[in-house]
Specification:
Blueprint: E1 2-11, E2 14-24, E3 29-33, H1 40-47, E4 55-60, E5 63-64, H2 70-77, E6 80-83, H3 95-106, H4 111-124, H5 140-152, E7 158-162, H6 170-187, E8 190-194, H7 198-204, E9 207-212, E10 215-220, H8 222-227, H9 231-237, H10 241-252
Parallel strand pairs: 3-8, 3-9, 6-7, 7-8
Antiparallel strand pairs: 1-2, 1-4, 4-5, 9-10
Helix pairs in contact: 3-4, 3-5, 4-5, 5-6, 6-7
Length: 253
Amino acid sequence: MIEIRNLEKSFGDNKILKGVSAVFETGKTNLIIGQSGSGKTVLLKSLLGIHSPEVGTISFDGRIFSELDSSEKRDLRTEIGMLFQGSALFDSMTVAENVGFPLKMFTNDSNSKIQNRVDFVLKRVNLVDAHNKLPSQISGGMQKRVAIARAIVNNPKYLFCDEPNSGLDPNTATLIDNLIKEITEEYNITTVINTHDMNSVMEIGEKIIFLKNGLKEWEGTKEEIFRTDNQAIVDFVYSSNLFKKVREAYLKS
């Protein structure tokens, strides 16, 4: 579980986060949504330790990040997996080398142990014949699965995903959503996803935080979105006619 309390973050005179509090639950897909400039990217980077909020606390299963010493922070970072927006694979490395990179960087595991773990996670994301291929030789959807394998190779407690469906076609995006959800449940990970994809919200939104102008405007589940009378979240989620029709049908049922 990750708990944030009263987070405030500014850049110069521009206050981006304005007292945001929330709990991201273990074993669930926790989504952060909001328009551009709402503060969701700054919130995600604050959770990752890239930004340091001026006010408030971030705790990982009771460990307050700002109170940890450098060694404890380093240990915590080994418990974190990150799925970047553009996959961020190393072009000159093979799929297997990309996936094994965190283990070579942060562990003293033997080459054979690393190889066994790489084989395991690539099989888990349904990539059993891609070990020796370069990223340029596989599709965007396969690259995203490689990135997921790399993010979970160190068996993280916490998984952060930044726009995981960016650049993917709808069918592939749904596959990636479902894979992230399956892995979250299977390994009991606290997963936090920064997304603007409303299909993701409706597919895997077990816990949703909606930010607007640096404030937590709403939180709930994908089912509760259909019933909410909060006009801000209604306007954001149901900006397309398709989702409006889905909501109308749900309310009539």
